[in-house]
Amino acid sequence: MPDPTFRDKALLVVICALVSMIVATDAAILTRTTGASTAEAILSAGGAFAVSMGLSLTTLDALGLV
User: Are 12 and 3 in contact (CB under 8 A)?
Assistant: First the structure.
């Protein structure tokens, strides 16, 4: 398999960021529906984004794609 180009790597990182944003939005909605404040929901979303982005980039690195 040929090495991915810079454009391919950038596209994979953008896809990871978009998926992480979806995960963060879901986390914020779920947190808010439990009765938590808006600030708590935002903090929960930030944590979910960071964990999701970290896991996805680590996975891409382990596969040799980034």
Answer: no
DSSP category for residue 36: -
pLDDT tens digits, one per residue of 1-33: 678 899 999 999 999 999 999 999 999 999 999
Separation CA 36–CA 28 (nearest Å): 10
Please answer whether residues 17 and 53 qualify as being in contact, where contact means their C-beta atoms are separated by less than 8 angstroms: yes
46 falls in which pLDDT band (50, 70, 90)?
very high
State which H helix or E strand residue 17 sits in. Answer: helix 6-33
**Residue 3 identity (one-letter amino acid):** D
